[in-house]
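Hi R.,

Here's the chain you asked about this morning:
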Amino acid sequence: MSAFTEDNSPHPLDVALGSRIRLRRRELGLSQEQLARQIGITFQQVQKYEHGTNRVSFSRLVEIAQALHCGVMDIVGDLDKSKASSPFSRHVARLNEPGAAELLEAYAAIQSPKHRRAILNLAKQLAEGKTAHLFDVEDAPAR
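And the predicted structure, written out as C-alpha cells:
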C-alpha cells in the first residue's frame, strides 16, 4: 500500500488519522507547538501528520496518544473499517473546521429539543444563504 494515491495526494487513511489527532489536540486546547514540544518534534511535523502528508509511525502514534491523554485506540478507532468517503469520515473531517467542535459542544449542552431544532434550522438556513443578511457582522451591536 502506497503512502500516496495515484493523483499524488496523501492516502485517505493517513488523512483520517491526522484529522483525529487534530480533533483530540483541539479538544484539549493544545496548539501544534505544544503537542510538538511534548513529543520532541517540530510543529511543522505535527502539521504534516495532521494533514496526512507524513505518515505516523506506530511508536510516534503511541507518543502522541500519551501526550493527548488517551489511548491509541481512542485515536485510531475503527479507521480500518471505514472508507475515506464514508459519511463517518466526512463528519470527522468536518469537525476540523474552525469552531465546529465548539459548536457541537454548545449544541450538545442545549437541553431543550425545541431549542436544538431551532439552532439546526438556523444553521441550515445560513448554509443555504437564506438568512445571511439578517446577521451581517457590520450591523451587529458592539459588545
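The radius of gyration is 18 Å.

Let me know if you need anything else.
M.
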